[in-house]
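Hey, can you fold this?
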Amino acid sequence: MKLNNAHCAITVMHFFGTMCWTALLVFTVAVSLTLSQAESDSSSRFVKDIDGYMSVCQRLGWEPKKGCFQQERLIAFHAALKHILRNLPVKTTLKFDDVLLNKGNAYDPTTGVFTAPEDGVYSFEWTFLSIQKSSVYLEIVVDGVRKAITCINQQGSLYISSSGHLLYELKEGNKVWIRTSHVTAGYLHGNKYTFFSGQKLKSF
């Protein structure tokens, strides 16, 4: 009789234990589904909020061509002279034929001309190296109009370099290049001593 009672007690405990584990499993699944639904709702609200912000930005005229959150295109180049150039006539365009960087493919080494692929503010730098008793005037032009000039005139050092910098707002299609000016350019050193570079500044 005592054995039967013990057996009944064990059976009852097993039954309630199974019920507890089942209830716990159902509770866990329910919580998971609830959290998943909440996360889904949160994601949906986030997407709707972003769409709303983009719409407001576009209505205000901020970055209307690209949208508010689209990554900007990288436009940058750096090119140097491969070889020495001598006795260049006035208004000779320099063709920097050793291209080290040309993101956006806006610089053409066959012509020496940079063509702005889009509107924006651009930064340009150039440096040249010359020798003793040589005179060199270099100017940077936008669509044929001079914007800045650098020079070395009958200098006394064995070698000397000069550099220039231009910040300028360009429209799509504007062309920029470096050319000789004033007098015949006596000597320009190659092998990366004379170079031209530029980039579009980021919009904020």
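Oh, and this one too while you're at it.
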Amino acid sequence: MVLIGYWLIEKLFTFEAYKTRNNRGFIIRQITHHKTKQEKERQREKLINMEKRVLYGLVVMLMYLVGGGYSQGVVEWIRDKAEWEEILVKTEIHIGVMVTSPLCGAPCDIVNDQVARFVETYGDRIKFYKINVLETLFFALDYKILTVPTVIIFKEGTINLRFESLSDWGMFYELLVNSSILDFPPDLSPAPAPAPSDSDPDADLPPPLQSGE
């Protein structure tokens, strides 16, 4: 009986050890599966970001091929702080500044075309400039530029609008058109007719009919 008891105890411990190994293996498989799923999600995000960059490039190429590009709009570069301060003081209309960088890539190319297109149509309402954030660090420090592209609209020397981290810069032209920049369109109504002179009230009346003899 004692031997049978020892045998049963040994089998019981053997079974528990086997079950523990199986549970441990199950947990390891679950962790491995979870890590594999996370890696797949990261790869999927990388592919999506790559597709977005490719799409931005294709949009820019399409705009140039179909529309001939919008590079005709005059958008000048700001080179130093003294030049910027003079522009800020002397310009009477809205001022737009597009902050860009050579490392920006497709988003900055799209904004550049959108801005040039807007200037072509509404250049009498706003004067646009471009700033390379790597060459004009004063602007990045003064206006806390954290990302490119960033577009800032100034009115009477102060910030009126600010655009940054947009999900779709391809809609930037529409955002500008619907912004406060165009709140006061020029008066295109016909000029009123001149009022009759007060000195001679009968001057504008037709001559009286002559009766036949």
